[in-house]
Amino acid sequence: MATPHATGAGAAPAPAGRGPSRLRELVPAAAGAALAAAALLLAGQIDQGPESAGIGPRWWPEVLAFTLLGLSVLHAALAWRRPAAAGDAPDPATREGALRLVAMLATVVGYGVLWYFIHFLVSTAVLVAALAYLGGGRGWKALIAFPAVTTAVLYVLFGVLLRVPL
């Protein structure tokens, strides 16, 4: 009786070594590290002012950038150390997936433009609803309730509690 792991005439060989699956896992780690480096460079340009000896305006962006850098290194290390499984290769990229990614990036850029002209509450609700739709969300929960709750939480956190001008 044949086992599912036996290699027969129709079975595909297990991926050996550090194949495309590993490379595809290292790409997000490299992108995160690049984003963290850019954030650190931009945070270094923030004027601290003469009165801030401890925590200043540069502190929070630097904490986020170093956290992102640490998580990116951890992601890369775990992706490199993890043994490759037989069915571990991701599905090949499709045209629909690429178009969806480009549409999501364009939506985020559009959000920045929209926020300049329209209040935070409206533009954020539109952004979250558009991203939910592009991600496959359908129905009132995904397109109305989720954006409303997300926008409300962000507004309360940043606008009310942290008093960030939105």
TrEMBL record:
Assigned keywords, A-Z: Membrane, Transmembrane, Transmembrane helix
Disordered: region residues: 1-20
Domain of life: Bacteria
Domain DUF1468: residue ranges: 31-166
Ranges annotated as spanning the membrane: 26-43, 63-80, 101-134, 140-162
The UniProt record lists the keyword Phosphoprotein: no
Name of the featured protein: Tripartite tricarboxylate transporter TctB family protein
Organism per entry: Nocardiopsis mangrovi
Organism lineage string: Bacteria, Bacillati, Actinomycetota, Actinomycetes, Streptosporangiales
